[in-house]
Automatic annotation (TrEMBL):
It comes from Rhizopogon vinicolor AM-OR11-026. This is Uracil-DNA glycosylase. InterPro entries: UDG_fam1 (IPR002043), Ura-DNA_Glyclase_AS (IPR018085), Uracil-DNA_glycosylase-like (IPR005122), Uracil-DNA_glycosylase-like_sf (IPR036895). Belongs to the uracil-DNA glycosylase (UDG) superfamily. UNG family. GO terms for cellular component: mitochondrion; nucleus.
Length: 244
């Protein structure tokens, strides 16, 4: 875990729920394949230090198939094909950011380094078994991660992307102060729901407008565009939707 997060979350590690979670994960690793690999579980914390967070994008479960999850919600490493949800995220970026060019890669690391916290509600999953690590303690921990952002000593407001009802319920439960922070709500980018309000939501543009007005800064979403995909297929996928 990155130093800034480890310091801020230190009290969580000694709590009974976290000890139980560790025991559960040890047993899972002994009996099953678990994603992401161990050194990627907290990659979000190393790529996006606490004081650099400008935007929080909350997913649900890590991708549960081979070669997909690497610790950032919605993100996959090459040569993995773009999942349907990520294709729709790229579609909306194309609409919101005139200079954005479609990437071939699904690796969202450049945006994580730019201040976008790609956080999943659960940080691990059993291979090929969606939601298999739900309600084992991760939700309590990731609630603490979000509270840590809300309680930063600098008091700076951030943008929260609430895509889908689960994310919206979490942010509502945490009682985010919407005078201080911006919460952007819409349908999930999954191909099953993207056409019910995700596509056309303007969230990336709205986030930058708010950040510029509030703090005089923006997220450079075009950092993903260094390798344009001339022939990439951005049509919605009908394949099984990874719950991320």
């Amino acid at each position: 875990m990155g130093d800034s997060w480890r310091t801020a979350l230190e009290k969580e590690f000694a709590k009974p729920y976290f000890q139980q979670l560790k025991d559960f994960l040890i047993a899972e690793h002994e009996a099953h394949t678990v994603y992401p690999k161990l050194n990627d579980i907290y990659s979000w914390s190393r790529l996006t230090p606490l004081d650099s967070v400008k935007v929080v994008i909350l997913g649900q479960d890590p991708y549960h198939n081979v070669g997909q999850a690497h610790g950032l919600s919605f993100s996959v490493l090459p040569p993995t094909k773009l999942p349907g949800s990520l294709k729709n995220i790229y579609k909306q970026l194309l609409n919101d950011v005139p200079t954005f060019k479609l990437p071939t890669s699904g690796d969202l690391t450049p945006l994580a380094k730019a201040g976008v916290l790609w956080l999943n509600t659960c940080l691990t999953v059993r291979a090929h078994n969606a939601n298999s690590h739900a309600k084992k303690g991760w939700e309590t921990f990731t609630d603490a991660v979000i509270r840590t952002v809300l309680d930063r000593p600098d008091g700076r407001g951030v943008v929260f992307f609430a895509w889908g009802l689960p994310a919206q319920k979490i942010f509502k439960r945490l009682e985010i102060d919407e005078e201080k922070h911006l919460v952007l709500r819409s349908a999930h980018p999954s191909p099953l729901s993207a056409h019910r309000g995700f596509l056309g939501n303007g969230h990336f543009k709205k986030a930058n407008e708010w950040l510029q007005k509030k703090h005089g800064e923006e997220i450079d979403w075009t950092v993903l565009s260094s390798i344009p995909a001339e022939d990439a297929d951005t049509s919605s996928s009908s394949a099984t939707i990874p719950m991320t």
